[in-house]
């Protein structure tokens, strides 16, 4: 496992991080005991960065993760969770007010069985009024940082231009990291266009979803995936090409997304311990550079296609 610096936070994150969304049954129902074992498997095999949100499974992911973390020494992992996006009884909700995000931090700590949070993120800022994020949400989190309740503050979004806008409109040092998903993968390298900006502002970068929410998998994108059909078709052809070479596209996808040392960590999610071990094994194997080029040629012009978060 390779460990990379996250900006100026002092944290060195495993280049493969554990995304705990699957513990909330976001993708399909899970067996809780198996999900807890998946967390232990990740940490026992070198992953030291875990990311979650109260939104995942509408608080379920944090609750299940908290049961796992009770049995793991606190110094063995960095924990990231989020504020601003929630849900209840199957209905999504957003609240970026200072009071709600402050309360949310303490509620998350209780569910997670921890007494501080390494990294707190404003979740999916594209759903917020960015001016509220700048003028109200982030200042509330900075107060908690000053108190030591949280160690570091970040923001997340699918659209990197929103992350850039927020950083440009807050005092230096307010935002210490960004998390962007689906934009550093075999089918999309948009995040590369923003790395110089983030580094110039001492902001660390976290990537997520090396499978591009299922596009880069043998199973294919789920029906709800917001990508246009031509992109889905191109990724399906790429998966078939990899299979013909005896190389799972999932393996290539994980290897590619974790290969750039300018990106501290790439998050993947699985509640299956065997799949966790498999992904860790992918990272430790050499990547087929020729196959990367072949896959990206197959996807071609579709690599710059945008889609909206849902």
From TrEMBL:
Official protein name in the record: Aldo/keto reductase
Domain NADP-dependent oxidoreductase: 16-298
InterPro entries, per the entry: AKR, LGALDH-like, NAD(P)_OxRdtase_dom_sf, NADP_OxRdtase_dom
Alphabetical list of Gene3D superfamilies matching this protein: NADP-dependent oxidoreductase domain
Protein origin, superkingdom: Bacteria
């Amino acid at each position: 496992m390779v460990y990379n610096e996250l900006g100026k936070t002092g944290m060195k994150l495993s280049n493969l991080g554990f995304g705990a969304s699957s513990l909330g049954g976001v993708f399909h129902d899970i067996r809780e005991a198996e999900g807890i074992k998946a967390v232990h498997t990740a940490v026992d095999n070198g992953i030291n960065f875990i990311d979650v949100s109260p939104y995942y499974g509408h608080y379920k992911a944090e609750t299940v993760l908290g049961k796992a973390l009770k049995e793991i020494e606190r110094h063995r992992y960095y924990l990231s969770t989020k504020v601003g996006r929630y849900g209840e009884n199957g209905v999504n909700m957003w609240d970026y007010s200072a009071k709600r995000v402050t309360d949310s931090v303490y509620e998350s700590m209780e569910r997670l069985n921890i007494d501080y949070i390494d990294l707190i993120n404003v979740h999916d800022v594209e759903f917020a009024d960015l001016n509220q994020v700048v003028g109200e949400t982030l200042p509330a989190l900075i107060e908690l940082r000053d108190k030591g309740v949280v160690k570091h503050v970040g923001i997340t979004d699918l659209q990197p231009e929103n992350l850039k806008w927020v950083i440009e409109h807050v005092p230096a040092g307010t935002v210490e990291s960004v998390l962007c998903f689906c934009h550093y993968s075999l089918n999309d390298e948009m995040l590369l266009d923003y790395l110089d900006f983030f580094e110039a502002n001492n902001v660390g970068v976290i990537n997520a979803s090396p499978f591009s929410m299922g596009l880069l998998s043998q199973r294919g994108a789920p029906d709800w995936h917001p990508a246009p059909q031509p992109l889905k078709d191109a990724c399906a052809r790429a998966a078939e090409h990899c299979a013909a070479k005896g190389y799972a596209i999932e393996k290539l996808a994980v290897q590619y997304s974790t290969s750039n040392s300018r990106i501290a960590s790439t998050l993947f999610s699985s509640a299956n311990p065997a799949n966790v071990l498999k992904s860790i094994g992918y990272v430790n194997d050499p990547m087929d550079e020729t196959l990367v080029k072949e896959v990206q040629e197959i996807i071609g012009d579709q690599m710059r296609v945008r889609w909206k978060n849902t």
